[in-house]
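User: Ig-like domain-containing protein, Potamilus streckersoni:
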Amino acid sequence: MSMIFRGAMGPASQSLVLFIVFCFITTGTVSQNSHLNVTILSSKPTFGIVGQPKTILCQVSGTVLTTVTWYFNGTRLSISSKYSWTQRLVGGRADLTISVLLKSDSGLYNCSVRNDAVTVSESTILSVEEILHVTVHSGTETGIVGQVKTLRCNVAGMPITSVQWSVNNNTLVNNEMKYYWDTSSTPNLYFESLTIADTGMYTCSATNHAGTDFASINLSVVATPMVTIKNSRDLSVNEGGNVLISCAITDTTTIDSLQWYFNNKFLYHSDPHYFWSCINGMKVPFDGSLRIYNVTPQDTGTYRCQATNIAGASEDSIHLKIVPKANGNAVELISVKEIGLIVLGSLLAICIIVIIILACCLRRKKERKKTTTRMESSMISHDQS
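Assistant: Predicted structure for Ig-like domain-containing protein:
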């Protein structure tokens, strides 16, 4: 264009044209500059994770060269190993990249764009959060029916947006009537009064923008065992036979110990005369029945079955009577009480017999006396005649 102007006009005319073109270009640049715009594309506020990189997206709209400056809490940032962005561009992205986030990087970030005419900016708040780590006091807990119980949970990291407990993958409701928990970094779960139905797998979970972490506790709720001997209360067995005393126990998997007693004396597993299931610390179903082999009269007495767990102890008893052998035939063993009754009966019988004999003697004596009196009267009458 300049060549055409120079060919068609003189020096004065060319100068005028150049001035007009210069004014046109300047006016157009100012008009375009006035439409400069900057937009933060990242969410507001935006979130980052400690130890990880973070990019805050910034879009610049314009058609002339602009200069980009980032500010943190009002302080101008410099490009370094920590911060980087494109400082000069003609439209496009001026994203700020932070290489490794620290908790102290939380704050207000401002993307400022300027050219020769205007300066525009937009801000967003960055919240740097720590990855949460949830731990529990123990992976296995035991409670007792009717008692209070605390399942301990600890959350490391900040901030904590929410805390939730669940049992067997079912969400619990924070309810002080049954159980409740805090929303702090120690959201322990508190039970007011345990029931067997509270047995289950409990999970403590905590959440923030960095994610969710959780830990689980297997809770077993134990009740005092119920012990019942199924045999009749008075059991009689012939000498030389074997005896089975059936002892039923509710939920044998919670039993810590099972013990049999004979006349309040401790029975030992090492005695081959007796046998019952030995727990040996293994919480498995078992039969608590007592077997007595080749019984003798000395086995007569009271047998007691006792089961114990962390909730307490329960017991039941039975009286066993052994019928001894005599001349190859079994006769019933007579107890001391029965002997006393027999002796007492015998004494009463003897007394009755003595009374009867005495009564007979007195009667006969009276009859003799009457007979003698009649004979004497008869003889006197005869003599008078």
